């Protein structure tokens, strides 16, 4: 793997921080390459060379947070990371994934609706595999493969955005519903 130059890494960090700030203040709709370049103190050409376009920049924002989240559930402290009982880890994972999804809801909404299968693969497969493993340890009698999909479905960005924005459901209510499902499933 080719190592990133120090100045390139510094520019990348400044660009991502500037883009995060713009998304936080204006939403994904306010994410323009020119505004990000100005806020980061780099040329617009640098952004286009590095990220390709606006969607490439959005995916880089998602990727940065995704790496942090995956590190937390794969090797972080319990109960999200190793060291807790599998059932406890499932609950911690679902609550953390709820927060992670809400944190970047507009970016994930854009990413998950880019194509018919855009939600699946990459991160979804990591979440699914993690849940399958944990559920299988607690409930070897259930079809953990399909149960994992059922648990992940309420956190699809389009559904979560609709429920939160159109129906007034807050993330606390979503987490409570997931906890109820897990209580029934995992006892």
Structure description:
The model has no long low-confidence stretch (mean pLDDT about 90). With about 190 residues, this protein is an all-alpha fold. It is globular. The protein has two domains: about 1-50, Arc Repressor Mutant, subunit A (Orthogonal Bundle); about 60-185, Tetracycline Repressor, domain 2 (Orthogonal Bundle). It is built from ten helices and no strands. The longest helix has 22 residues, at about 55-75. Helix 4 packs antiparallel against helix 5 and helix 5 packs antiparallel against helix 7. This is TetR/AcrR family transcriptional regulator. It holds the Pfam family TetR_N. Keywords: DNA-binding. InterPro entries: Homeodomain-like_sf, HTH-type_TetR-like_transc_reg, HTH_TetR.
Order of helices and strands: HHHHHHHHHH
The total of helices stands at: 10
> Given this structure, which CATH class of the largest domain is correct?
Mainly Alpha
Q: Which structural class do the helices and strands define?
A: mainly alpha
Radius of gyration: 18 Å
The dominant shape is globular
The quaternary state of the protein chains shown equals single chain
Structure summarized in a few sentences:
The protein has 187 residues and is mostly helical. The protein is 73% helix and 0% strand. The protein is globular and about 55 Å long.
Key terms:
single chain; 187 residues; mainly alpha; Arc Repressor Mutant, subunit A; Tetracycline Repressor, domain 2; 2 domains; 73% helix; globular
């Amino acid at each position: 793997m080719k190592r990133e130059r120090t100045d390139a890494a510094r520019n990348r960090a400044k660009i991502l921080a500037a883009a995060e700030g713009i998304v936080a203040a204006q939403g994904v709709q306010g994410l323009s390459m020119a505004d990000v370049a100005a806020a980061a103190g780099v040329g617009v050409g640098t952004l286009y060379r590095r990220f390709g376009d606006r969607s490439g920049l959005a995916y880089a924002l998602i990727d940065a947070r995704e790496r942090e989240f995956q590190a937390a559930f794969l090797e972080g402290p319990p109960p999200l990371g190793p060291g807790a009982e599998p059932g406890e880890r499932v609950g911690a994972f679902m609550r953390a994934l709820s927060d992670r999804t809400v944190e970047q809801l507009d970016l994930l909404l854009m990413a998950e609706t880019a194509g018919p299968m855009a939600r699946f693969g990459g991160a979804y497969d990591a979440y699914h595999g993690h849940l399958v493993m944990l559920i299988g340890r607690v409930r070897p009698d259930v079809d953990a493969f399909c149960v994992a999909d059922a648990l992940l479905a309420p956190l699809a960005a389009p559904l979560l955005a609709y429920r939160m924005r159109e129906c007034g459901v807050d993330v606390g209510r979503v987490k409570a519903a997931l906890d109820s499902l897990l209580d029934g499933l995992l006892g």
